[in-house]
Design brief:
The chain has helices at 5-9, 117-121, 131-153, 212-222, 258-279, 281-290, 295-304, 312-320, 338-349, 399-408, 415-422, 435-443, and strands at 18-30, 36-41, 49-53, 72-81, 89-100, 157-158, 164-165, 206-207, 224-232, 245-254, 308-311, 353-359, 375-383, 387-394, 428-434. It is an alpha+beta fold. An eight-stranded mixed sheet has the order 6-9-10-15-14-13-12-11, with helices on both faces. A five-stranded mixed β-barrel has the order 1-2-3-5-4. A two-stranded antiparallel ribbon has the order 7-8. Bound molecules: 4-amino-1,4-dioxobutan-2-aminium adenosine-5'-monophosphate and magnesium ion. Residues 388, 391 line the site of magnesium ion. It is found in: Cytoplasm. It catalyses: tRNA(Asn) + L-asparagine + ATP = L-asparaginyl-tRNA(Asn) + AMP + diphosphate + H(+).
Amino acid sequence: QYSAIKDLIRGQVEIGTPVEIRGWVRSRRDSKGGFSFLSVHDGSAHAAIQAVLPGELPNYQSEALHLTAGCSVIVRGELVASQGKGQSVEVQANALEVCGWVDDPDSYPIAKKRHSFEYLRSVAHLRPRTNTFGAITRVRTVLANAVHRYFYERDFQWVNTPLITASDCEGAGEMFRVSTLDLHNLPRNAAGQVDFNEDFFGREAFLTVSGQLNAEAYCLAMSKVYTFGPTFRAENSNTSRHLAEFWMVEPEVAFADLNDDAALAEDFLRYLLTAVLNECGDDLAFFNEFIDKGLIKRLEGVVARPFARMDYSEAIRILESADRKFEFPVAWGEDLKSEHERFLCEEHVGGPLIVSNYPKDIKAFYMRLNDDERTVAAMDVLAPGIGEIIGGSQREERLEILDQRMAAQGLDGLEWYRDLRRYGTVPHAGFGLGFERLLNYITGMENIRDAIPFPRVPRQADF
Ligand code: 4AD
Ligand code: MG
């Protein structure tokens, strides 16, 4: 009977039961007594399981003794209590089937026990076999399910917004262009180079930077919606917080203001952290031991206490009087850079912080103008070690002011978006959570390239 390794080590299967495991060899150790221990993982659990291969196996000499890290195997036998340290059960094998050998074990790219994360990025197709990337993958799955569960339990509709679009939601001009190209008949210029200036069936089109504008349309009919999918940013920044392709969760709520929005963001984050604390015990214990000591304590603290809040103007006053030299200028009207965000939440507050009411000139056109006419009803959630993890706002629901803001930012078009203000407009608000930034925050991993299976960053699109 085939069993996932997680069910065997968690006591779901009784001792003495015949079992079959299928997976990949992590290591082999031969005993003087003429038998071998094989450590096998299958991704279902943090731990590998040990299989004891007796010398009597018909293929013991010919195959078992040649197994190396990375070989794929099926082992049948009996689940028995283990004498070894650090494991309660093992498989006493009576049959071994080798599915796939490792060509030239010495050159198996992840043969060594420990590799740098930078090196592992160069073998992104094999890194899921390591402890760390197995753990990240499982936490990512638990988080994604918790996202859907949170909204489903609260009657939000999941709206799948388009990836190909003509609208630059954030107005930052950082979009990838989509072209229709006949690969068998590439358009060439006079010099014979491929002419990539083709458009999308006669219309300019780009990969979306955010599903928000489309989500707003559904929000103004369904009341509570969210998107959860990939988004794209052509920002040429080589940092540990930016990807060219990342996943974003964007809820949008009708009849909601900025306070409702901030309260939703806080409740949502607390729910997600709680889900991971409850469901990812072994993996979190691993991150806590090897990546970030104190991680679990910190996450528990975040769940237990309300988030700190302050206005942008107050944040500027704190930064101005901070006894610290910043690389980028601090002045009212300047955007907060990562160093400022981290100072505020790490040193000033010592936990997550919600900053609200930013100057209108540094924020997107759709954010609602405040009565002071200098700021907009925006809020960012800042997290220690990461900086901005969520960006959100109350939306401008008044057509006249929206038009002024669009004109001020040199935007036109978006007639369909303006329609939403012409036909039954209501106050509404929402935010975007960067899924990989959250995953880094929860696992203690430092580089966002390690929070997504196959990272897309400038000059890196292999795999
Ligand atoms: O602050 P941003 O740009 O906000 C929006 O896109 C809004 N339309 C969201 C909304 O109100 N519905 O992005 C939201 C979040 C950021 O806080 C950050 O966590 C993440 O998306 N993010 C990135 N994550 C990885 N790589 C990048 N290049 C990112 N850019 C933004
Ligand atoms: Mg932002």
